[in-house]
Amino acid sequence: RSERGVRLRRLVRSTEIHMKHSDRVRRREQGFTLVEIMVVVVILGLLATLVVPAVLGRSEEARMTKAITDIKSIHAQATIYATKNGRVPSFEDLLEPDSTGNPYIEGGEVPVDPWQNPYVIRKGEGRLRFEVASFGPDGLEDTEDDMMYPKRSNS
User: Fold this and answer.
1) Cα dihedral 100, 101, 104, 107 in deg (nearest 10)
2) Cα dihedral angle (115, 117, 119, 123), rounded to 10 degrees?
3) Do 72 and 78 touch, CB atoms closer than 8 A?
4) Minimal CA–CA distance to 96: which of 86, 84, 81, 76?
5) How far is it, in rounded angstroms, from Cα 132 to Cα 78?
6) How far apart are the C-alpha atoms of 109 and 112, rounded to whole Å?
7) Are the C-beta atoms of 92 and 82 separated by less than 8 Å?
8) For residue 114, is the peptide bond before it cis, meaning its omega torsion is within 30 degrees of 0?
């Protein structure tokens, strides 16, 4: 009997341990507690307050950077055209295929700046002098937000 009782007690103990373990597993499988969910929501809220303003505040800066990059690229292609042809090009000239069959500017139409205004090629003083410009967010010529390449000297 005592040996049988020992076996029975061991069996009961192992069953109790197994049941406690399965209760813990079952609780974990049921999902997250309200407190855990609230902690995650608070953390996400804090991250959003830090990240969103930083990202949203850079959109105008990104537009300006894109416009300047476009202006320099158009100027480089227009300089190649001017060197080959001895005159300052118009956008129509840059859209026409060159001797290799490729246009100086891809796309088939006058490129527009990030504010949907067309870029402009303006002749400067001298035979092959010119600048490429974007009139900026306001779209008005000769205002403070204009961007051009090469930059005008103030002298």
Assistant:
1) -150
2) -130
3) no
4) 81
5) 9
6) 9
7) no
8) no
Which residue pairs, CB below 8 angstroms and at least 24 apart, start in 49-57? Answer: none
Are β-strands 147-149 and 120-123 bridged in parallel, bridged antiparallel, or unpaired?
unpaired
User: Global pTM?
Assistant: 0.65
**Each residue's pLDDT tens digit, 45-71:** 888 888 887 777 788 888 999 999 999
Return d(Cα 149, Cα 69) in angstroms, integer.
10
- Dig out the tokens for 10 from the structure: 């061991």
Determine contact, residues 106/91, Cβ cutoff 8 Å.
no
The half-sphere exposure of 46 on its side-chain side, counting CA atoms within 13 A, is 6
CA distances in angstroms from 152 to 60, 77, 84, 104, 130, listed in the order given: 23, 19, 25, 24, 10
